[in-house]
Fold this protein.
Amino acid sequence: MSVPRPSRAALLLLLPLLALSAGASDVVELSDADFESGLAERPGLVLVEFFAPWWGHCMRLAPEYEAAATRLKGIVPLVKVDCTANSNTWNKYGVSGYPTLKIFRDGEESGTYDGPRTADGIVSHLKKQAGPASVALSSVADFEKFIGDKDAC
């Protein structure tokens, strides 16, 4: 018994679906050549993943990091640097293990993210970091909205 081959028409119908699934990433990839300028183009808070593509922990983090980038789009940019191809950058920032997640503010390193390696953990932490230190509540409705927000601390 032979397995039927898909028709040309069926394959043509699948091409747009494949194109959608291989869509553009919300994670920005930078290199030694454009790391500094790439951060300068993104003022404020930025999370940078220093990774090695073949390392198991990096492979497990990749879909979580991508999901976090999508959820944080327009709030906090997520960047990645392939350390196997960009040794100047990882050496400059003292990266000694993979993946390493570092927080930058206005182009300057401000800390390391050591929280959960999940989209939810990354999003929660960065929203708290990106949010204002205080919020002016001028009405009862504003107060109720504020305390009803699940991300409020």
In short: Confidence is low (pLDDT under 50) at residues 17-21.
